[in-house]
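Below is how a single chain appears once it has passed through the pipeline. First comes the sequence as given, then the structure the pipeline wrote out for it. We keep one example in the README because the format questions we get most often are answered faster by looking than by reading.
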Amino acid sequence: MTVREVNTDNDTFLRYADQPMIAFVMFFNQSRTAAADSLMQIMTQEMIEAAIKHGGRYYLPYRRHATVAQLNRAYPQARAFFDLKRQYDPHEIFQNQFYVTYGSNKAGLYE
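Resulting structure:
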């Protein structure tokens, strides 16, 4: 595990650091099986809950193990971000798996 200081990010819309923070960077070695991935998803969601409970966030580029509810609690600006995305791309021409999982109308962001 590596611990890093992270400066406030005033430029990014979905910013990880809206104030000076400490980042814990962890590397996990797991089997590439559905069962191992399921266990990793449970553990990741538990770590995300702990971070949110203590006023922290998780880093978005990692795997899409967070729930939509966790994304919304960790990144309260997510709804506005996805609204802007749809405003500028109403036909949803530009998509990636992050958007499909968390931002598309099918993702449950508005439930």
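Residues 34-53 form the longest helix (20 residues).

See the next section for the split statistics.
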